[in-house]
Design goal:
With about 800 residues, this protein is an alpha/beta fold. It contains 22 helices and 27 strands. It has a seven-stranded parallel sheet with strand order 3-4-5-6-7-8-11. A six-stranded mixed sheet has the order 12-17-16-15-13-14, sandwiched between helices. A five-stranded mixed sheet has the order 19-27-26-21-22, with no helix packed on it.
């Protein structure tokens, strides 16, 4: 009966939109302003600029200001699931720029739970209903931009879920990221969303920072390459992609998130080469329609109040043509946290004049709109500035076709388009390719499911039965989750394996006094000791131990930076007790940050980094441990040995990460831990690879030329596997100090045992460029060294070429 009702409602809506006597809907156009004629802005055949100008000329101050604010959706700010008569008394009676997270049943927010999120066709119908109110009940009928998060799948009830972005980055697979973007864009389109907040382009340079799992990694080139593919995938589905978080957001002082989130200590050249590089490249090459301005400052100026960042760089230099939306409370921070404005109105004036188009916060949109109207009426914000900001919002709405097709055309199709078998298969493959093998002494892995050697398997650790890490504030909700314990049991049963699997939790993720216990050690309670003793007793009866340890979503994430990076709680003590039994241990890490697992690396024979996988977690980890999936992922962030080494990452300036000599005069001495635990680009496999025949097509180039590079890669082992071939470039001598060497190419290749493939790279002039003494991007004459290998420190082959001056 419920399904029939939905179909009837959908048909009625379609009938209304088809054009009837007295209707605003006509063949090929909509009479948005209800004046009975086809205005320029209503004519799809007219140029977008003409349509924007025409609509803007008809707008009142109230209507213009309504296009500068976000209305957070149901369960966040909006109290009504669907339009009602009270909306005529709300500020959005004159329209609104966008509605965020509308009816998506946001994860872990009971207030946002709604009957209109699923089935998917019901959501599409509900979005149409909301859109229909704005089109028909406001004077000019300007459609709403429906925005939503989407960094690892669309933030919607039962949409296709993907692993955390740090895992997505570990795939090093552009094609898969492009497919993921296609899926997110297609699902958004089918559900009625028109703008997705993805990707995050922040380089995660401080491993303590809480949002490391939401980033692709620490290297700007790799981030730009994957981010570009995400934007292209989303936007080719007719949905806008909005980049996060512009700019210099990911290095708050000391990695502190939470209430800090400010004061990055970044020099100008480093800012452009490291933190702005991904944004510049993605904007220039993929043309996203949205950018989110961050709430931090740079060099004493809040980004959201900076004309330099929001206009000069973003629009004039990078060529951005979309609209800028503020991160939540970024505008309020201008006066509340940064104290560079006297009051709220002062912050509004700074932001809109800097280039902010749309303010977002978890309060009613009128909180921003009414002060803005006052500023314009007082002459403190010019109508010219307001018109520019509104025009930039309208331009995006025209580009997205909202004025030509304001509704989801086929709401029932959503049931067939969202979370399909094909999209689930892509998500599973991304999960598989995100697995990173960190250690495998004596080829302990893969475990042989048919081997009678392992008759008794102990699965232990606090993450073995956890599931909440698969879902976040910024991803899909309510999908069934397979825990690691369940996944291993399912796998062995499917293989007919008769091994006895036992389980012991051993300890919780954290102890009762954590995080204070990281600086003040406390003895184990009787309960904690009993938990470890129980795991040890079961370990003694087992042939192999699979210890699933790490962090949950309560230890890492937005607002959850850490001061230490060891395994939290009693997990190391659990591992030490298990190791003392003499039984082989496979450690599976489920975590969001690179952890300082020094003891574990020395004494545990096999370590698999799984990051935060999607809901397929247990299935993928089981396949990897038992060899159906040969791990080929590589690290996109450096694992330090100690937080005392931070900043410690890749790329770096010459000698900036050099160790100290073990002895000597003049103050040099053995006083610090040197080197990384695992370097950028590192990852093992169940097979081996050989590199040969590195070629550069010429010895000498002009500054504007492309450089062609090729190398042969051979699977020299006995099983099929993936290798991520990485190309690094070193500028031998330069007018300013450049990074010691940097990533400038990568390709993930699949090889059968014994198979050889030739991998080709093209270095563009931008890959060779530096910011010279005058802060101009320049390719300088001189020698460059190409290095190709399996990681940033495992460089197999090297070759040089020369850039010469124009004759």
């Amino acid at each position: 009966m419920k399904k029939t009702s939905i179909i009837i409602i959908a048909l009625c809506l379609a009938k209304v939109c088809s054009g009837q006597p007295g209707s605003i809907y006509h063949k090929g156009w909509v009479d948005f302003n209800k004046n009975g004629k086809k205005d320029v802005f209503e004519d799809p055949s007219q140029p977008i600029e003409a349509r924007v100008a025409d609509l803007l000329s008809q707008m009142t101050l109230d209507e213009k200001t309504c296009q500068t604010s976000t209305l957070y959706g149901y369960g966040r700010v909006l109290k009504d699931e669907l339009p009602n008569s009270s909306w005529k008394n709300q500020v959005w009676k004159d329209g609104i720029a966008n509605i965020d997270e509308e009816l998506n049943s946001l994860a872990y927010n009971s207030k946002a739970k709604t009957a209109y999120s699923y089935p998917f066709s019901k959501h599409a119908w509900a979005i149409n209903t909301v859109q229909k109110w704005f089109v028909e009940e406001t004077r000019l009928g300007i459609p709403v931009d429906f925005t939503n998060e989407g960094i690892h799948g669309l933030c919607h009830d039962r949409a296709t879920p993907f692993p955390a972005p740090i895992g997505i980055g570990s795939t090093w697979n552009r094609a898969l990221v492009r497919q993921m973007g296609d899926i997110i864009g297609a699902e958004a389109k089918a559900l009625g969303y028109t703008n997705v907040y993805t990707p995050i382009l922040d380089p995660a340079r401080d491993q303590r920072w809480g949002r490391v799992p939401e980033c692709y990694g620490e290297n700007p080139f790799m981030i730009a390459e994957l981010g570009k593919q995400m934007v292209l995938g989303v936007q080719e589905q007719g949905v806008a992609s909005t980049l996060k978080h512009y700019a210099v957001y990911s290095v708050p002082k000391g990695g502190r998130d939470g209430d800090a989130r400010t004061d990055p200590h970044v020099a100008p050249r480093e800012m452009h080469q490291m933190y702005l590089y991904p944004f510049r490249r993605v904007i220039e090459e993929a043309h996203p329609l949205g950018v989110m301005s961050s709430y931090n400052d740079w060099d004493g100026v809040p980004i959201t109040g900076s004309h330099y960042f929001l206009t000069e760089l973003l629009r004039q230099q990078y060529g951005f043509t979309g609209y800028v939306v503020s991160d939540s409370e970024a505008l309020e921070f201008i006066y509340k946290k940064h104290h560079v404005a006297d009051d709220y109105k002062g912050a509004v004036k700074q932001a809109i004049e800097a280039g902010l188009n749309v303010r977002t916060n978890f309060t009613m949109p009128g909180d921003y709109i009414f002060p803005l109207r006052e500023l314009v009426k007082e002459g403190n914000v010019s109508m010219k500035v307001l018109d520019e900001r509104v025009a930039e919002v309208l331009r995006v709405k025209f580009k997205l076709g909202m004025f030509d097709h304001p509704y989801v055309t086929d709401t029932l199709a959503a049931n067939k388009l969202v979370h399909t078998k094909a999209s689930e298969a892509t998500a599973v493959e991304i999960n598989r390719q995100s697995m990173v093998l960190l250690k495998n002494d004596n080829n302990l892995l893969p475990l042989d499911a048919a081997n009678a050697k392992f008759k008794n398997i102990l699965i232990c650790g606090p993450m073995a039965t956890e599931t909440r890490y698969t879902t976040s504030r910024y991803g899909p909700s309510n999908n069934p989750v397979i825990s690691v314990l369940e996944g291993i049991n399912n796998y062995l049963n499917s293989k007919g394996n008769k091994a006895k699997v036992t389980y012991a939790k051993g300890c919780d993720v954290t102890d009762p006094t954590w995080p204070e216990s990281e600086i003040i050690l406390t003895p184990l309670s009787q309960t904690e000791q009993a938990g470890i003793d129980s795991a040890v007793a079961k370990a003694k009866q087992s042939d192999v131990i699979i210890a699933v340890v790490g962090e949950s979503e309560k230890q890492v994430g937005e607002g959850l930076s850490r001061t230490g990076l060891n395994l939290p709680g009693r997990q190391l003590q659990l591992l030490q007790a298990l190791q003392a039994t003499g039984k082989p241990i496979v450690m599976v890490m489920i975590n969001g940050q690179p952890l300082t697992i020094n003891w574990e690396n020395r004494y545990v024979p096999a370590i698999l980094e799984a990051w935060f996988p999607g809901p397929q977690s247990g299935k993928i980890i089981a396949e990897t441990l038992f060899g159906d999936n040969n791990p080929g992922g590589k690290l996109t962030i450096t694992f330090p040995k100690s937080v005392g080494q931070i900043e410690y990452n890749f790329p770096f300036k010459p000698a900036s990460q050099a160790g100290q000599a073990s002895s000597g005069d003049n103050g040099y001495g053995k006083s610090s831990v040197n080197g990384a635990l695992y370097h950028f680009g590192f990852g093992l496999s169940y097979t081996t690879f050989e590199y040969s025949n590195l070629k550069i097509d010429k010895d000498t180039y002009y500054p504007n030329a492309d450089v062609q590079v090729s190398v042969d890669i051979r699977n020299s082992g006995k099983r099929k596997g993936d290798e991520v071939v990485q190309l690094y470039l070193k500028d031998e001598v330069s007018s300013v100090i450049t990074y010691d060497y940097d990533l400038r190419g990568f390709e993930r290749v699949t090889l059968e045992a014994g198979e050889t493939k030739t991998v080709k790279f093209t270095l563009h002039p931008d890959d060779l460029a530096l910011l010279d003494k005058n802060m101009n991007w320049t390719v300088e004459p001189g020698k460059f060294r190409v290095m190709v290998g399996a990681s940033s420190t495992d460089l197999k082959l090297k070759k040089e070429f020369t850039v010469k001056s124009y004759e």
